Every structure is written in structure tokens, then in C-alpha cells.
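Hi X.,

You mentioned you wanted examples for the new student's onboarding notes, showing what a folding record looks like when two proteins sit in one file. Here is a clean example. The first protein comes first, with its sequence line followed by its C-alpha cells.
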Amino acid sequence: MKAEDIISRIQQSIPSAQIKAYDMTGGGDHWQLTIQAKEFNGLNLVEQHQLVYKALGEWMHGPIHALSLNTRAAD
């Protein structure tokens, strides 16, 4: 899995998302994501993360083995 694939998939569901993706192991299955988005406004941290998991869908059960998220609302 490539960073561009993850970024594209998230931006389909969260269009305003500004995303930094870091492959933690070089194997394409352990990712650290930093995401800032207007869609997160008014949501708590769990709700923000749920939006990201929903955007990634079935990838969370296959190509992505581990995910570290740092999310925040945009101004």
C-alpha cells in the first residue's frame, strides 16, 4: 500500500482533509497519519477517528495492519 492510495481514499470521504502519511515500517501496512479537516469540527476524538476508519473501509481488515492517528479540526 502506498501513501498516495491512503490519502486519496480518505479525501474521497473527507474532502477538506490535509493528510500526512508515514509508513512506519517500510512494508506498507503500518501507518501513522496526521489529518486536519473541517469535517472534524464539533466531533470528539473518537468520532474523528471513526470517520477515518469508515473512509478506509475494508482496508482496515487487510492491507492496513496497524494505524496510528493524530486528528484535529480545521479552522
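Then the second protein repeats the pattern, sequence line and then C-alpha cells:
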Amino acid sequence: MPHILKNKNIEVHIDFPNEHYNFSRFDWTGKITDVKFKNIKVSSVESLTCKNEHHYGKGFYNEFGIDNALGFNETPIGGWFHKIGIGLLKKEDNTYQINNNYEIKPAYFKITSKPNSVFITCKSDSVNGYSYILEKEIQVHENDFTITYHLQNTGTKNMSSSEYVHNFIAINNDLISSNYVLNFPFEIKPKLFIETVNPEQKVEIGQKKITFKGTPNTPFFFSNLSGNKNVNSKWELTNLNSRITISETGNFKTNKVNIWGSKHVISPELFFDIFIKPGESKKWSRIFKFYNLK
């Protein structure tokens, strides 16, 4: 059963580390599986056709080190490397793939729950000079919820990684269509995108917003929306049919903003760069707000 944080407006369902999702990609600390605003569901799932839902993303799952897991390059094949928030993964070959089903040695987790918050600590083993303590707190407020992270480098090597929330969103189960408008506080630069996947040309890129010409039947993806420029970490998604707006705001600048989506879901992603020297730590947060259009 999920742990539920709830007030009159917001309802957040959280799976604890050893519950349900047990794959080697998304962070196990505080897996936000479902979110409702005024009893309307605003979250979705990565795949509608998966055979094992516990191998796929949903809700507001986050991930560390999508491009390169901590210590992967210097780990020999057959050795173990870190996936922050999960534990140790066994290296199979020389290319890190997020969708590989790696063998896992889970980290150590501790959970403290209160009526309006959940606090989870993840403590890693020490392997190849890397170790860490990750603390995550999820809090529910009147019209928003926040995720606060504190990552401490307890190893002997510099820690370099990244973190983002995948944001599997669909408001009131509405398919992606002209009912959705996605806004950003910065200029979108298509000429500087690293990757563009828009086979049906149903995703329209504006100066500061993204709209849709009908419902895309195939997945779409855009990376590097700001052209590698440091910008304010924020997006705002409105569903004109339900007249509900969701926004995510980070307390940091970002130079990497991606969008992934499919027929049933859209995922705007704000990346936080992580570089921590031994004995030091980083703290950052994200706030997700919900409101009705007037």
C-alpha cells in the first residue's frame, strides 16, 4: 500500500524504497506514483503496454546519472558501480544503458513519516572510492508539494552526476492534444537542440511555449531546449479542457531542459548538475504547484 500525503487540495501517493518499483533506473527514495489535485488525477505512467509495471516510470519519479552512473567508467566488467538512490549495480559491459536490467545490491534506507511529510535517508556502501548519504524530504502544502534533496559525499573521490524528475503527466487522463500548452520562462532554441524526435510534426515549437496539432501516435523528444544556456528552472503546463495548470520550479539554474512524451503522457525535465568534493554536500529543491485557471 502506498503512503499517502493528503490535504483538501493535494494528494500524493508514495511508495517506499523496497515497495513495487524495483528496477535499476529511477531513484528508490520516495517514489511518487500518483498525484491528484482537487481529486483530479494529474499523473500518468511511462508505458501503457508494459508487462511489468515495476520496471517502468510513473508519477513523479526522479533519476540520478542518466548519462553515466557514478563510478561506471572506472569499474571493471563484473564489478559494482553506484546508482544514486538505489544501490550498487553490476557492470555487464563498457556501455551504460539506463534500460538494462542490472543486478542490484540495494543501499540502506531509513524512513520517517509525518502527517504532511516523508523523510527518507539512503546510505551507500563504499566502492571504488565513492560513497554518499542521500536525504530526501517530500512535503505537501495547501496547493503544492516540494521535494528537497541533501546529498553528502562521504567518499574519497569527487562526485559528479545529475538529477531530474521525469514528470509523467496527464491531466484528468486527457490525451496529449491541442488542449495542452507548455510554457517556459526562457527562449526556446530549436537550432541548438541536441536531439529532435517529432516524426508526425504534431509538436509545435514556439518562442517560449510548446503546443500540439492533434494527438501524436508516436513518442516525441527534444533535448537542450535552452541551447545550453543557464536559465531559470521552471515549466508550466496547462490543460485547457480541465482548466488546470501545473508548474515545477527548481531553486537552481539549469543548462539542460528536455521534453519527452507520447500519446498519453508528457514529461518536461529540469536537470540539476551535481559536483561535490569529498566531505562536502549539496542541497537543492523542487516545488510543484497546482491551480485552476480563472
